[in-house]
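During the second year of the project, the team shifted from modelling isolated chains to modelling whole assemblies. The rationale, set out in the original proposal, was that interfaces cannot be judged from single-chain predictions alone. As a representative example for this report, we include one of the complexes processed in the last quarter. Its constituent sequences, exactly as entered into the pipeline, are reproduced here:
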Amino acid sequence: MQPELNTIVSHATKVAPAPLLRLSGVTKTFPGVRALSDVSLYLYPGKVTALVGENGAGKSTIVKVLTGIYQPDEGEIKIDGAAVRFPTPQSAETAGVTAIHQETVLFDELSVAENIFLGHAPKGRFGLIDKDEMASRAQSILAGIGAKIDPGATLKDLGTANKHLVAIARALSIDARVVIMDEPTAALSQKEIEELYELVESLKAQGKAILFISHKFDEIFRIADFYTVYRDGQMVGEGKITDVREAELVKLMVGRDVSQIFPKRDHNVGKGILEVTGYDHPTEFADIGFTLRRGEILGFYGLVGAGRSEFMQALFGITRPTKGTVRIDGEPISIASPADAVSSGIVYVPEDRGRQGAIGALPIFQNVTLPSLARTSRKGFIKLAEEFKLAREYTERLDLRAASLDTDVGNLSGGNQQKVVIAKWLATQPKVIILDEPTKGIDIGSKAAVHEFMAELAAQGLAVIMVSSEIPEIVGMSDRVIVMREGRIVAELPRDRITPETLVSHAAGIREDAQ
Amino acid sequence: MTTSRSLPDRLQSPLERNLKSWESLLMLVAIGIFIANSFASPYFLNAWNLSDATFNFTEKAMIAFAMALLIISGEIDLSVAAIIALASTAMGAAVQVGVGTEGLVLIGLAVGLTCGAVNGFLVTGLGLPSIVVTIGTMSLFRGISFIVLGDQVYKGYPADFAFFGQGYVWWVISFEFALFAIIAAIYAVILHMTNFGRAVYAIGNNATGALFAGIRVGRVKFILFLLTGLMSGVAAVCLTSRLGSTRPSIAFGWELEIVTMVVLGGVNILGGSGSIPGVVIAAFVMGLVTFGLGLLNVPGIVMSIVIGALLISVIALPRLWAMWRS
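Output from the structure prediction step:
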């Protein structure tokens, strides 16, 4: 693949006009993670560049570098050929770089105009805010993007779409030359998306350079002029959008050896244990149904926001579905709370370890025994010796690294915290374990340990659901994969059909040609 | 998977942890105040005087134990003093129609439980913030007392009803003090030795995490509101018995004194940590200070200044200590 990439790169630089913003050789590391490694990015005046990549490819990091939130370890940013540095978000704004984020932070109790100009309001006499000037400038910016919103309205009274327009107006209120749009259509309806496209066209006409980040291939091909692909913190390709096909982009996004570090499994799947039918939720998912078998690892793949975690949390009793049934061993069960799910043998290892998975201020042994207290106590009275015994048994099975069982979980590394959460659930002797992004944000060593342990659990007959956005993990671990898009199951892939290309195609809604 | 090595249970023994604790610091403060008092007034070191002194805190402390659990779980109940007023008013009204002592006690406790259930339902059933709910019910409960009583006073409690607030079980040990000690022991056991107590800590540290661990968070919190209401009912029986009358202003302002006692006892106002022994010592500290100042004829206004200063300085001590060391 490497020679092919080089030709694309040279091709792009040959045909393109002089870039307005040129970012090159940027490296950014965090403790234990190399988020960006010698990446570059070119944005051209009056053109849209689409940045694509899997979750964790480094897209968000590059946005934060461009907006002064992160300082790169190495590399440089040039605007019109002059090197610039963005030590603070304000300095990026001053240089004319602005971003419309996935979830823009706005202030519900302030007016539209105040939201737009917060931090750079026009000043009048005595340095006080010139409200009339602010309102009229807000009016003209809103008119410029075709929004019919009263600048004096309080933000909380607006609908989601209008709030989004205020966020865009805020981004444009500084005299921006570079506009970054980070998944701007994620929360919009089809009509609003069309309006956004028109806005993008008008920004192009004004000569602004636009960086457009999206998972949706249809919109990339609709509005982008150039593309750049990141994978694992490296730039793996770029060029003109007219020179590339969807299938090639998918290949660039996922292309790597995926069978490397995963444990060997014999895939002996038993009979069905969990049966879900017709699970519906008003907004998050619809008509979810599947059967999970003993000893099986069932992968759930989809883009962020596809409704996978929301469904799992409904299955675990955190939220209520509007309808649907769950059967364990053929018996219908009712799950009104996590406590019900646990007593039915369904346990859930959440993605948000710090908030949902572990109780950081409590020691390891108390975290492990929390759902199993009935077994380590007599008539409701805690028996410490049995508590320690149970906690030791399961933490040692997971090879937990800690100073003692009395150490607060909050003081452990992410990987070890995850081991505590998994140990907690195994101690309840569950029938079904749901792992939501089980290796997100944990180091390589712990990752391998978690994978190995999952394989071992499945071999012992436990039924495992693994929600993951990491394609190698899905491909390397799953016996079967369910792909979700926009709250629905769009594909169920048997083992021999689980490939990175099919996963991405189904998740992004690309039809046959990409397969 | 291989068990390569064994994890030790603890690195620090429970005794060592206790010695370094907040409770030890508070104990030193209590001893210091005791010694200072015995020098300041010749009447202090008298068994009967000391026994009298305990009435300064026993009723408040009964509520403070339940309040401690509630605050550890991340909630609060500011309506406790108003519950006393309502329970006492209900008992007073019952006296007027000739209800006997047993009936009065039952009414007091039942009103307390009912008020606790109202608070618990509003917080856990409707998901409203407890500080707002109980500020509301504080006005509501006491408002009912004012409407029923106006500027009247209920009197005429049966003679044997006086035992709860004025009786002695042995020598200088009053019934109230004995009840205080028993309730302290019960709450210490609940909080520190049962699954329920463990759930309270888990919820206070991370309610979402506790829910995700299969704890019935709503049920636990509802029970805590019930217990706090019940303890307010118990305190209402004792206080009404001790005073022998009911006015709508009974126990006015106690809710903040009770919260002060809980916080002074080392309970984190944001939830998650604290202990019953700490609250017991805090009750004694507050009782001794009030009593000592009373013997010195210090007016009540000045006493509240002293209690406030004491609270802030004791809370600030560990922080100042840490700043000084670094």
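The beta strands of chain B are 168-170, 173-174. Residues 52-316 of chain B form a domain with the ABC transporter involved in vitamin B12 uptake, BtuC fold (CATH 1.10.3470).
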